[in-house]
Amino acid sequence: MLGTYGGLWRCALMILGLAGLSGAGGCASIMSGGGEQMVRVNSTPAGAAVKIDGHDYGVTPTMAKLTRKESHIVRLELAGYQPSETKLEKSLNPWVFGNILFGGVVGVVVDVVTGGVNELKPDGVDSTLGPATAPRSETDAAKANVTLRTVQNRQ
């Protein structure tokens, strides 16, 4: 009778062990939210138009959900201010090392496929926009030209 229960216990322990190993797979994906990352975008002053990779994402302050599989360019534009650009680079997610210890090959494959192997750096954008330089008007340019000619003629 003990032999029958011993076999059941071994079977149950094997099932629990396999379930535990499969749950450890994809550690970076589980801990960091998979292949997408929420990135906060702020500007001073607020209200700047946000464009990420050429697509509109609203105005600051905002949050953008971006894929971790590639780098991104965040551009902020506000009338009367110089535009600002920030590059979000993909880099190795440190949670991936959990797979080396616990998840093995299956965990690493899950993270690579989902994009969880990467994270975006910096994890947010906080730009202070500088005032735009005022372009010279045609009238100002004409006045400067006349003044220059007058000075040249006197010499």
- Sheet-strand content, in percent, reads 25-35%
Number of strands: 8
Mean pLDDT: 74
| Unreliable runs | 19-30, 144-154
**Largest beta sheet: what is the strand line-up?**
3-2-5-6-7
Shape: elongated
Structure description:
- It is a single chain.
- The chain is of the alpha+beta class.
- It contains 4 helices and 8 strands; from the N terminus they run ααββββββαββα.
- The chain has helices at residues 2-24, 27-32, 96-114, 138-154, and strands at 36-44, 49-52, 55-59, 62-67, 72-77, 84-92, 118-121, 124-128.
- The strands form 2 sheets. The chain has a 5-stranded antiparallel sheet. The chain has a 3-stranded mixed sheet with strand order 4-1-8, with no helix packed on it.
- A hairpin with a 2-residue loop joins strand 2 (49-52) and strand 3 (55-59).
- Residues 19-30 and 144-154 have low confidence and may be disordered.
Write a concise synopsis of the structure shown:
This protein is of the alpha+beta class and 155 residues long. Helices cover 42% and strands 31% of the residues.
Which key terms come to mind for this protein?
single chain; about 160 residues; alpha+beta; about 40% helix; 4 helices
Task: Explain the layout of strands and helices.
Layout: H1 2-24, H2 27-32, E1 36-44, E2 49-52, E3 55-59, E4 62-67, E5 72-77, E6 84-92, H3 96-114, E7 118-121, E8 124-128, H4 138-154
Parallel strand pairs: 1-8
Antiparallel strand pairs: 1-4, 2-3, 2-5, 5-6, 6-7
Helix pairs in contact: 1-3
